[in-house]
Amino acid sequence: MVLLTIPVAYALGRLSFGQLLVVSAVVATAKIAFNAASGAFLKALVRPDDLLVANARFESTTWGAIALGPPLGGAAVGLFGPVVTIVADALSHLLSALGLTAIRGHEDHPRPTGAGRVRAGELLDGWRHLLTHPGLRALYLNQLLVGGLIMATEPLLAVLLLGELGFPPWQYGLAFAVPCVGGLIGSRLARRVVARHGQHRIIRTVGALRAIWLIGLAFVQPGVLGLATVIAVEFAIIISMSLYNPVLATYRLQQTPKDRIVRTLSAWSIGSSATIAALSALGGLLAQVTSPRTAIMVAGLVIFASPLLLPRRPDADRPAPERSARVSTIA
């Protein structure tokens, strides 16, 4: 509903940059809370053997939305204007909420803590679980580094392609829309490759593969060859990420007790967002001192160290204890 304040303020002539910042902050906070709650509900709703299938379907849907959303959003802005497009976006969130109410299944009610407020220790419980669990700690630190560096190169690449290399906007959009097909491919392969090679081997192998492609963006040249280079590199990164992410999400749910899932996923999201912001700022400063190409090169070199953070032994991990049985299956 906070998105609807934008067209209302615009109609009253009171829209300001400050309001846009507040709306962005509220939307980001709501996204973190929703992702944490959805992960907890997924574990309660879906059988253990179906968790990977469910996470792979979410991953496939995410990449489909990324591929179609920006082009459709841009077309809507061009046809109807930004205010009408924001109204449509806000209504889509309302329809999503109505759709969630149609989910059938049993969910355990949270137990009262006996206190009227959340203790400070409970707010840190998610990070405590992540950092004391050997497997999750390794994967968390690895994800912070990999995700932060990949996202930090996005604004640098925009400056490089649109500014220094003179790519037209439609080619820039094409360079990021086409590789999203890899997201559909990777997510569809997740269950098959895990069944064949095992969860730990996929985490180790594909987790390392994510790190080897980024440096290719530092060698982009003008023209068709440069466009093909960006598409190829982004395709390789996305297909690796979309195969890795469902396996990681499944492992994270398996290794986290039900009463800690929301706090753990919240801590994971907050840490990821903070790391992306910090590394993006550092990348921008480095690009200012040197050049966007040099900053991308540095990110591509640093990310080579990320596989060292991946867990080395699968035998140290065991499923988290559960206090109640899960019910239902995937719809």
UniProtKB/TrEMBL annotation:
Annotated TM spans: 20-42, 138-163, 169-190, 202-220, 226-244, 265-287, 293-310
Membrane topology field: Multi-pass membrane protein
Classification via InterPro entries: MFS, MFS_trans_sf
Residue stretches in coiled coil: none
Keyword Plastid: no
Pfam families attached to this UniProt entry: MFS_1 (PF07690)
Keywords (A to Z) from UniProt: Cell membrane, Membrane, Transmembrane, Transmembrane helix
Compartments where located: Cell membrane
Protein name: MFS transporter
Species the sequence originates in: Micromonospora trifolii
